[in-house]
Amino acid sequence: MDGTRERITTNIRKGVLEFCVLALLSRRDMYGLELADSLVARGLTASEGSLYPLLARMRQAGSVETRWLTPEQGHARRYYAITDQGRAQLRVFAAVWRDIQPHVDELMTEET
Amino acid sequence: MTSHALPEAAETYLRALGAELSDAPPDTVREIVEDVRAHITDALGSGRTMDQALAGLGSPQAVAGQARDELALADRAPDHAERAGRTLRAVAVAVGVLTAVCVSFLLPFAALPLGLGQAGPDGQSIVQRYGAGFAMLTLLPALIAVAPFVLPARTRRVAGVVGALVLTAFTVVSGEIGLYYFPLVLLLWAAVIVPSAMRRGIGRVAVRVWRLVAAAFVALPAILIASSVATGTVGVDWLGVALWGVGPLVLGALCGFGIRAGYAVTALAGALVMILAMVQPGLLFAAFWLFGGVYLMIGASGFAAMRARHRTPLQTMKPVQ
Question: How distant is the alpha carbon of residue B246 from its chain centre?
Fold first, then answer.
């Protein structure tokens, strides 16, 4: 059963992780570790390492960009920021998610 | 970009990650490696231990696998290190066969450490004296060299190391005949060490040191020639100077700068010198044979270890609407 759970979790995360990253970045720019910690804390990714290949693809697709920033305290860090294209994608995802989510919830209530 | 060096464990991790993605577009790989480097720096800065930081990331193989997935790269292209090992082993086998021919036909049987030398007239080769059957024995080292090709993948590395050890021992204990097999032994070690170093990831400093040592050795004949000409021990034969002086200098420079073609030509020059030594065995036979062998080993190792400079065909991205 554990294998099944793991497989389902992996599949669902795969579908939503990219947009959760966009959602986090739409609030404010974040550096890698910060982003990784936020996702792990929410159980949205199991391994921090898988975040960076995803970010590489998103960067190529133009939904995020990286820049070096020096915060008021601390050293220069590589920050990730959402682009306009990324915001547009996030809006589309949010609309799709709002459509699907209540239906899935309704069907699942019988299972608990 | 600030990419200060991290503790060795982290650098090893980053090198391994880069090596796993050696067939991906270099710019993309550099960015991923830089991202992960920044992550490790921040994780250490926030009080995590190196073990925690690396464990959180997952293995380099797992991250690379994820990247392949995301970037829609083909699954690991034929392993680069594996291919380098195969190339070097193939060269070793060819040298093994050449050596067998050399030993069977050229070596006077008196050189054999068997105490049978007195039994016949001097100057007979092994084939003349003992016949073709015995001469087949001289092929045994070549067979040992070829063994890892035909063994199952699991045992290949061990077989490579054992073969190299056995032949090293043989070379050391068997006197003059061992000398003949020295180039083969060098290449067998190269076939073991080069791929394993590539798998571990070779540091930038190590690469630089290796290139300088290779360059120095390859250029050595030029220095010898120059000093003999300067001291007047040999007459100035301009063709000779060009061939044995300028040639090695140019090759040495190419190797020093890490030009792959330089290593290829060095390997060819080494093979040629070995064949020349065989065809016209003279007083300096051993010197030419051994020097050619080292040239071949350096050239073949450098050539095999360096990646051919071809760009991966345009990678396909998963389009996101």
Answer: 24
Q: In chain B, what residues touch A56 (CB-CB under 8 Å)? A: 28, 31-32, 35, 67, 70-71
Residues of A within 8 A of B2 (CB-CB) are 68, 75-76
Domain identity same for B53 and B148: no
Q: Average pLDDT of B76-102?
A: 83
Bridge partners of residue A66, in order along the sequence:
A80
What's the gap in Å between the CA of B59 and the closest CA on chain A? 8
**Residue A102 token pair:** 């209540």
pLDDT at residue number A102: 93
The verdict on B146 and B294 lying in the same domain is yes
Which sign, positive or negative, has the C-alpha torsion B208, B211, B216, B222?
negative
User: What residue numbers bound the domain in which B33 lies?
Assistant: 8-70
Residues of chain A with pLDDT under 70: 1, 111-112
pLDDT for the residue B226: 79
How does the average pLDDT of chain B come out, rounded?
A: 80
Specify the DSSP class assigned to residue B244.
Answer: I
The total number of structural domains in chain B stands at: 2
Minimal C-alpha gap between B5 and chain A (Å): 15
Asked whether the beta carbons of residue B2 and residue A55 sit closer than 8 angstroms, the reply is no
Instruction: List the domains of chain A with CATH numbers.
Output: 2-109 (1.10.10.10)
